[in-house]
TrEMBL record:
This is Tetraspanin-31. It is found in: Membrane. The lineage of its organism: Eukaryota, Metazoa, Ecdysozoa, Arthropoda, Hexapoda. Keywords: Membrane, Transmembrane, Transmembrane helix. Its main location: membrane. It comes from the Eukaryota. One of its GO terms (cellular component) is membrane. The chain crosses the membrane at residues 12-32, 44-67, 74-99, 179-202. The keyword Transmembrane applies. It comes from Papilio machaon (Old World swallowtail butterfly).
């Protein structure tokens, strides 16, 4: 019967198997990105890998607790998953609430932190130059690599004005950044509610008696209580 002990057990197992699959995908993406040099920013790779490992550990804890109907495992699973729900829900709401000015500020901070190699890859990949403009600071050192190569590409493709200069990267990436924030916020919000559902399901399953469990009975010799 749906809602009974067996149904709750199977639903909790299936949900944690889904989390294991998602965690495996995260780990695979991080390893592939590092091996193929698609992502050279190590903190990004490390963050994705850490999220995958953490999620798979929680999923294994939930699987073990669901299979064994272990009260302690299920309790810690509920607590950790609820804390994860609070964090992920807050981050997802923050991503959805970020406006264009805040997105530009965060993008500027990220641009300032990465090295010239990463900036050069961004310029070549998206055919842009600099972050907002090409003004040279007073110290005479620009905060972006040379744009000669990307300018020639832009001029050849005629995607820019007759001056054959690429647009600043912020103008080129503005829509992509907004889409990324909205996508991350939506996915994070969806998975946060699945985690809340898993907490409710684990609590329900934890409080349900196991129908196959037989209470122990003391057995005494017949001669001890019959006269």
């Amino acid at each position: 019967m749906c809602g009974g002990f067996t149904c709750s057990k199977n639903a909790l197992i299936a949900l944690n198997v889904l989390y294991v699959v998602v965690a495996s995908i995260l780990i695979s993406v991080a390893v592939y990105g590092q091996a193929s040099s698609l992502v050279t920013n190590l903190p990004i790779v490390g963050g994705i890998l850490a999220c995958g490992v953490f999620l798979i550990l929680i999923s294994l804890l939930g699987l073990a607790g669901a299979v064994k109907h272990h009260q302690v495992m299920l309790f810690f699973y509920m607590v950790i998953l609820f804390l994860l729900f609070l964090v992920q829900f807050s981050v997802a709401c923050a991503c959805l609430a970020v406006n264009s000015d805040q997105q530009e500020m965060l993008a500027q901070q990220g641009w300032n932190k990465v090295n010239m190699d990463v900036k050069e890859q961004v310029q070549e990949r998206f055919q842009c130059c600099g972050f907002q403009d090409r003004l040279i600071p007073a110290n005479g050192t620009a905060d972006y690599p040379s744009c000669d190569i990307v300018d020639r590409i832009c001029c050849k493709n005629m995607v820019i004005s007759p001056h054959c200069q690429c647009e600043p990267c912020m103008e080129t990436l503005k829509e992509r950044i907004d889409y990324a924030f909205k996508l991350c916020g939506g996915i994070g919000l969806f998975f946060s509610f699945t985690e809340l559902f898993a907490v409710w399901l684990a609590r329900r399953y934890r409080n349900q008696p196991d129908p196959s469990y037989k209470e122990p009975h003391a057995i005494f010799p017949r001669k001890n209580y019959l006269y």
